[in-house]
Amino acid sequence: AQTVTQSQPEMSVQEAETVTLSCTYDTSESDYYLFWYKQPPSRQMILVIRQEAYKQQNATENRFSVNFQKAAKSFSLKISDSQLGDAAMYFCAYRRNTGNQFYFGTGTSLTVIP
Amino acid sequence: GAGVSQSPSNKVTEKGKDVELRCDPISGHTALYWYRQSLGQGLEFLIYFQGNSAPDKSGLPSDRFSAERTGGSVSTLTIQRTQQEDSAVYLCASSLYSSGELFFGEGSRLTVL
Questions:
Q1: Model pLDDT, residue A1
Q2: Chain A residue closest to B106 (CA)?
Q3: Which residues is B21 bridged to in the sheet?
Q4: Which residues of chain A register pLDDT less than 70?
Q5: pLDDT per residue as tens digits for the range B41-86
Q6: pLDDT recorded at residue A49
Q7: Minimal CA separation from A15 to chain B, in Å
Q8: What pLDDT is attached to residue B41?
Q9: What would the 3-class secondary structure string for chain A be?
Q10: Pick from A83, A104, B58, B106: most CB atoms within 10 A?
Q11: Are A106 and B42 in contact (CB < 8 Å)?
Q12: Residue B24 confidence (pLDDT) above 80
C-alpha cells in the first residue's frame, strides 16, 4: 500500500527566510504524481506545486520549489523568502499514474514569524 | 460558481440524527472525491466518483455512510445515525480528469453532540 509520511508536525520560519518541509512516500510504482497542498485557516486546500515522477527536473512555482529524489522516495518542499501568508498546514500527496486514489500525509503546520 | 461549493459550511447535530452534506463540483469536472479530516489529522479518503462508472466506496468507514452523485454533477454525502466520532470536516474535491490535480471546496464542519 502506498503511504505518505510527513515527519515534521510543526515548523516555523522567520519572515523572508527559507524553510524546507519534508515528505517521504512508499511505493512500488515507477510512474506517479506528487503534490504539495496548502490549507490555510480558511480550510480550503490549494495546490502549491506538482511533480510528475518521470520528470527528472524539479518543479518550481515562484518562491516554491521541490527537491524530488526518486530513488530515496523523498519529495521536500522549499519555500523561499517566506511571507506571512505562507502560514498554513501543508500536505504532501501521492497519486499513481493509473487509478484514482490520492494518498495524503498527516500535514506540517507552518508558522511564519514576523 | 468558479470553484467547488460545499454546504452547509457548519452543521451541529445531535447523536443519532441523520445529516446530508452537499458538494457542487466545478462544471465539467468528471471526478469527484469526498475526504474526511479530523482535528489535527490528515485526509481520510471516503469515496470517489468518475463519470458514469461505479463509485469507489472503499473508504467509507461504515454502512452508516453513503453518497450519491446525480447527473454526474452534484454529490450528497449522507451520514445516518450520527455518532460523536463522526465529528470532522468533510472535504469535497473535483478533478477535470482522473489524473489531474484536485480542486477542493471549503469543507463542511460537522459537530455531533
A1: 57
A2: A44
A3: B77
A4: 1-2
A5: 788 999 999 888 889 999 999 999 999 998 878 999 999 999 999 9
A6: 96
A7: 24
A8: 76
A9: CCEEECCCCEEEEECCCCEEECCEEECCCCCEEEEEEEECCCCCCEEEEEEECCCCCCCEECCEEEEEECCCCEEEEEECCCCHHHCEEEEEEEEECCCCCEEECCCEEEEEEC
A10: A104
A11: yes
A12: yes
Most B CBs within 10 Å: which of A38, A44, A103, as the mutation test of the B interface?
A44
Tell me the three cell numbers of residue B91.
Answer: 472535504
Portion 9-28 of B in contact with A at CB < 8 A:
none
What number of other Cβ atoms are within 10 A of residue A25's Cβ? 19
Least Cα separation, residue A3 to chain B (angstroms):
12
Q: How far is B80 from chain A (nearest CA, A)?
A: 25
Q: Tell me the backbone φ, ψ of residue B72, rounded to 5 degrees.
A: 70, 15
Give the separation between CA A71 and CA B88, rounded to whole angstroms: 36
Q: Which residues of B fall within a CB distance of 8 Å from A37?
A: 102, 104
- B30: closest CA among B76, B89, B75? B75
Torsion angle of the four alpha carbons B109, B27, B56, B10, in this order, in degrees rounded to the nearest 10: 10
Note whether B42 contacts A105, CB cutoff 8 Å.
Answer: yes
